[in-house]
Amino acid sequence: MKVLRTGMPEEIATGIRRRGKQFSVEIVRETMAMYARTPRSYCPDDIHVLRDIAYGGDARQLLDVHVPKQGLARKPASVLMFVHGGGYLLGNREGRRNIPDYFAANGYIGVNVTHRLAPQHRWPAGGLDMGAAVAWVHTHIAEHGGDPGRIYLMGESAGAFHVATYVFRPELLPQDNPRVAGAILISGPFLVDTATTNAGEAAYFGDDRSRWSDIAFTGNITRTDIPVLLTVAEYDPPHIDKGVVQMIYELTMKHGVTPRFRQLTGHNHISGSLSIGTGDMMLAGEILDFIATNNQRLGADD
């Protein structure tokens, strides 16, 4: 049985609802196990993956390019780059292979990005990694049938923080860093709170909490002309809710730019991204529509 409104299987809906707004390693494992049993709308064997392409000199600065084996129906194609989360300390691109696979199966080029981790690499290393990865894709994606003018950068959780750093803080990047056509920020931990006890945030932001005000997006956003889609899950932890609302307030009230926003009803912190490529189109449909409408604005169409 599926929940009518979302297409989410009842087993998953019940499991997520039972846990509510709690979040832990155990909940991550439970959620991933539930989605591992969920049928996919595409066949991974139909996707060709060019693996372990270096976009920088660090061992973690790697990306994979996902293209359909039967070829692209239309060239050049839009590009969806995905950036994993992991609390700044963990994570890898394999954990969300479903995302670049799904977009490749639907006529896009998918790019799956791994980034450097704290505490060895502190702020703004994640944003710099996004800039370097975008620079590689901008230079090389045409070789794979992609359009460098239609690159969309998507990050989940800590990955969303890194994407937001790249999008909203260009002064931290090399001056000639190319820009993307749009960004998708999934459940980003945008609230930079010096009272936090979160080990990942402390490791990434650094020991000197007096400098955290320079890291926060509040009061420091310097670029607002890249279209943005923000999402938060119904069962996200409260600090995620607060950070996303704070980001929307900052953009709307201080910069006069209202980002596109969607609450993912019935989902938790990671289930939205895991649902991509299943019968649950809540997040996938929102992203597809965001890209399609923005491509129309750019005078392009898939």
What does this molecule look like?
- With 302 residues, this protein is α/β, with parallel strands linked by helices.
- The chain has 10 helices and 8 strands.
- The chain has helices at residues 10-19, 25-36, 98-105, 125-140, 158-168, 199-205, 212-215, 238-255, 271-275, 282-297; strands at 47-54, 62-68, 77-83, 109-113, 146-156, 182-186, 228-235, 260-268.
- An 8-stranded mixed β-sheet has the order 1-2-4-3-5-6-7-8, sandwiched between helices.
- β1 (47-54) and β2 form a beta hairpin.
- α1 packs antiparallel against α2 and α4 packs across α5 (158-168).
- The two termini are 33 Å apart.
- The mean pLDDT is 95.
Main features:
302 residues, alpha/beta, 8-stranded mixed sheet
Distance between the termini: 33 Å
Shape: globular
Main sheet overview? 8 strands, mixed
The average pLDDT is 95
| CATH H-tier superfamily | Alpha/Beta hydrolase fold, catalytic domain
CATH class: Alpha Beta
Taking Cα atoms only, what radius of gyration do you get, to the nearest Å?
18 Å
Low-confidence stretches: none
Order of helices and strands: HHEEEHEHEHEHHEHEHH
Per CATH, which architecture?
Answer: 3-Layer(aba) Sandwich
Task: Summarize the amount of helix as a percent range.
Answer: 25-40%
Number of helices: 10
Strand order of the largest sheet: 1-2-4-3-5-6-7-8
Number of strands: 8
CATH topology: Rossmann fold
Secondary-structure class: alpha/beta
Oligomer: single chain
* Whole-number count of domains: 1
As a percent range, the share of strand residues is: 15-25%
